[in-house]
Design brief:
The complex is a heterodimer of chains A (406) and B (312).
Chain A lengths: L12 H8 L1 H10 L2 E3 L8 H20 L9 H12 L3 H28 L8 H23 L4 H12 L9 H8 L6 H31 L13 H9 L8 E3 H26 L29 H7 L4 H13 L4 H4 L13 H21 L4 H26 L5
Antiparallel strand pairs in A: 1-2
Helix pairs in contact in A: 3-5, 3-11, 4-5, 5-6, 5-11, 6-9, 12-13, 12-15, 15-16
Chain B lengths: L1 H28 L21 H11 L17 H8 L9 H4 L2 H9 L1 H4 L25 H14 L6 H8 L17 E2 L2 E2 L6 H22 L9 H4 L2 H9 L1 H4 L12 H15 L3 H30 L4
Antiparallel strand pairs in B: 1-2
């Protein structure tokens, strides 16, 4: 037993510090967790994501009390029991539905912020990789959740996406049946996606969130100019009372105060959407109960998957699947495809700046075309946007390699 | 200033994406159909008929198939038997004069298949005919006008949303969310009551199934349950589809029902009552959440300023 204060009152700070090291934890994780001062509101997206995940978790717990993962009961348990019989059930459902959509908007903003400011390289590779792992787990979480109301889009999107695992001409139909637990999406399918949605994937997400937060602590958060900061030196200045000169701020409460301000603006938007403009997050097609004999006229995923769906769709079967697989993994490799020695904002990087905006516009174009019926001009734009996406990523190592060191 | 510029960029691309996947995509996926405000302009307005003549004509021609419960005329057969004969149970005529537009009623009595836009279901030579005869070939237009006048004279002027739904939609469409609990629902043969014994409940269900089998044969498919239809279809779709189903779904077996604009509003109100009853609560509660968020934002701004005073 190490040294400890025998006279400390139980559960007093000293008592807890002796047993849990709360003072050290508080210092390392909050008060002397140094964040650069030169940041803008985009640096608050992480906190907004954490809060939105909290909203999803809490509303999800309430929904879980009444939802029934059974093909005969699921639709009515959502649309009747939760929406009509349970007090404020509609509120929890709309919070859950809107948050599930908005969380992806914030994830994309967060991702493109990271790309723009070069926050994925020069020691920050693990932050980026764990972040992309979160993107993948959130995507799986969103997809499995979309199955649960067992509407027409649940059923048919489930059919289309699980079919991808047959791997085109390899015709691995056994794999598809194994995933579904049936020849078509049915009761076994719904119940296992329910398990994934409420247990396995949330556990994985929480685990990866811890990893993501942890990966930030040592390399520290990036800043607006990509300036190299001697955190020890600046911390000394701050602690000596020279807070105006120091280039760093404390996580608690300097950084948090700014986070809360941005969060407050976000919440105004979020509740406006939840109460008065939730239709965008709840597709009308999914208010028709699942019917395996009636294919909807248009099958499309939620808006946040449209860009990768459109990379799959315009090509023939096998090349389409390869392009789709490419789009799914390529973002993870960004730190290694970017060969430039500079970790500074895109506007200081010449061609990379052009690359960034082209990628953003291309992905928005893919998103548009992914929802539109694949006819005429839309088909052509979709195909060329998909080709452009691949070309952009293939070109990235070459255009960054020739970048001059700043 | 720089933050505002960044914000403008973020907002621009977010709104652009929203516009592309919502309003623009939906405008491309669903054709916009111009409605006719439930006026049925191609159907001439009937002349003012003679109510007592109308009553005689109705007694002689209509009540062999239709009930008029408000006038003490019971249905000649129960719903299931009627559906076996006609495919669908003929409607009660008590409030037909209020629910349906008078020019539509006159055109319908003269030629039901044509007025309701389902003539394609009964092609010549197929041996199939609309279950209701075309009275235009059997009586002059003044007589039809008198029937319409009589129906208008006996109809209640103010109907509840449910009364309109039952007569206009409820003989083909069920609504399983229309009841105090799931199970006490609207079925095509009426509201399912609360039974004391399961045996009685099952007997009722069998009757519903028998009715649905006949309806299925007549329509080609069982018309969908309408509990959630309000959220599954756009406003423009519902309005123009109900007014004239062929405009949105060419070849469909669903007839143009001939609702007045007011009856249509009542049907929508009923669909909201059964499918989306939390709307009033949403609208009134949202404002408090927004107010709370605004107060939170004010305090958050003040807190940030006080903390950052020492940092700048």
């Amino acid at each position: 037993m190490a040294h400890f204060d025998k006279n400390a009152k139980p559960f007093s700070e000293q008592w807890l510090d002796d047993r849990l090291g709360v003072r050290t934890l508080k210092r390392v994780l909050a008060e002397e967790y140094w964040i650069p001062k030169d940041i803008n509101f985009l640096w608050a997206m992480g906190m907004i994501l954490a809060v939105t995940f909290g909203l999803l978790l809490i509303s999800g717990i309430f929904l879980l009390m009444y939802y029934k993962p059974d093909t005969a009961l699921a639709f009515d348990s959502v649309n009747y029991t939760i929406m009509q019989e349970v007090g404020y059930g509609w509120l929890f459902r709309h919070i859950h539905g809107v948050a599930a959509s908005v969380v992806f908007l914030i994830i994309y903003i967060h991702m493109f912020t990271g790309i723009y400011y070069g926050s994925y390289k020069q020691g920050r590779e693990m932050i980026w990789i764990s972040g992309m792992l979160l993107f993948v787990t959130f995507s799986a979480e969103a997809f499995s959740g979309y199955m649960l109301p067992w509407g027409q889009m649940s059923y048919w999107a489930g059919m289309v996406i699980t079919n991808l695992f047959s791997a085109g001409s390899l015709e691995l139909n056994g794999v598809v049946e194994w995933i579904r637990g049936d020849y078509v999406p049915g009761d076994a399918y719904l119940t296992r996606f329910f398990m994934l949605h409420v247990l396995l994937l949330p556990l994985a997400i929480i685990g990866v969130i811890v990893l993501h937060f942890g990966s930030l602590r040592i390399p520290h958060v990036n800043n607006q100019e990509g300036a190299l900061i001697d955190f020890d030196e600046e911390a000394k200045k701050y602690l000596a009372g020279n807070t105006k000169e120091a280039k760093v701020i404390r996580f608690q409460f300097d950084f948090l105060a700014k986070d809360f301000m941005v969060l407050a603006f976000f919440l105004i938007l979020f509740f406006y959407l939840t109460f008065y403009h939730f239709e965008f997050a709840m597709d009308p097609v999914n208010f028709d109960p699942a019917d395996g004999l009636k294919t909807p006229a248009h099958i499309y995923p939620e808006w946040y998957f449209l860009w990768s769906y459109e990379i799959l769709r315009p090509f023939p079967k096998d090349p389409g699947l390869i392009a789709f697989a490419f789009s799914q993994v390529i973002f993870v490799l960004l730190p290694f495809l970017d060969r430039s020695p500079n970790a500074v904002p895109a506007h200081k990087r010449g061609l990379f700046f052009v690359w960034f905006w082209l990628l953003l516009i291309d992905m928005i174009s893919l998103t548009f075309m992914g929802k539109l019926p694949p006819e005429g001009i839309f088909s052509a734009i979709g195909l060329w946007s998909a080709v452009a996406f691949i070309v952009l990523w293939v070109a990235l190592p070459f255009i960054t390699k020739n970048e001059k060191k700043i | 200033m720089r933050e505002l510029k960044i914000l403008a960029v973020v907002v621009f691309f977010s709104v652009l994406t929203y516009w592309g996947v919502e309003p623009f995509a939906h405008s491309q996926m669903h054709k916009h159909v111009e409605g006719g405000n439930f006026e049925y302009k191609t159907m001439p307005k009937p002349v003012d008929g003679n109510v007592s003549k109308g009553k005689e004509l109705v007694t002689a021609n209509c009540i062999a198939c239709h009930s008029i419960t408000s006038q003490g005329v019971a249905a000649p057969m129960d719903a299931v038997t009627a559906s076996a004969s006609y495919g669908v149970n003929p409607p009660d005529l008590s409030n037909a004069g209020t629910i349906f537009a008078s020019n539509y009623l006159a055109a319908f009595i003269a030629d039901p298949a044509k007025a309701s836009n389902v003539a394609h279901k009964f092609p010549e030579g197929s041996g199939k005919v609309h279950p209701m005869p075309a009275y235009g070939m059997m009586m002059p237009a003044e007589d039809i006008a008198s029937i319409v006048s009589y129906l208008k004279s006996i109809a209640k002027k103010e109907l509840t949303p449910k009364e309109v739904f039952v007569d206009a939609c409820g003989r083909c469409h069920a609504a399983r969310y229309d009841g105090k609990v799931l199970g006490e629902k609207w079925t095509q043969i009426g509201q399912k009551p609360k039974f004391k014994y399961e045996k009685e409940s099952l007997a009722f269900d069998i009757q519903v199934l028998d009715y649905q089998t006949n309806l299925n044969k007549y329509m080609g498919k069982l018309p969908p349950d309408l509990s959630m239809i309000l959220r599954a279809r756009s406003e423009n779709f519902l309005e123009t589809f109900i007014e004239n189903p062929q405009t949105q779904l060419a070849g469909t077996a669903m007839p143009a029902v001939g609702l007045t604009g007011e009856s249509y509003e009542k049907v929508v109100q009923h669909l909201q009552n059964i499918g989306d009853p939390s709307k009033p609560e949403r609208d009134s509660m949202g404002i408090w959440f927004l107010l709370y968020s605004v107060i939170f934002a004010v305090f958050a701004i003040l807190w940030k300023r006080s903390v950052w005073k020492k940092l700048h």
